[in-house]
Amino acid sequence: MKSSESGKKTNRLNLPFIALSALVNIVLLAVVAGAGFLVVQIFFQGRLSTDWARYMVIAFFMAGILVTALVNRLYLRRKHRGKRLPDEKAKD
Description:
Layout: H1 3-6, H2 15-44, H3 50-79, H4 86-91
């Protein structure tokens, strides 16, 4: 092995990690959206009009997207602690 290659990182995709993180993101999104749906069903028990219930479920689904994005961002910060994230490098 040449000395120039020893410290060189490969730029290959880690497909098992990508698949696992996608699955975790989908589950997290489903849990938040499902919890929102249950909250709407339990607290309003049919007293809420169908339109408002639909809007609330959509709002909880969007909240799930935001929670998933926040968890991903925090995970990336921890994973790359001490290093700059790719989007921060682009700002320079």
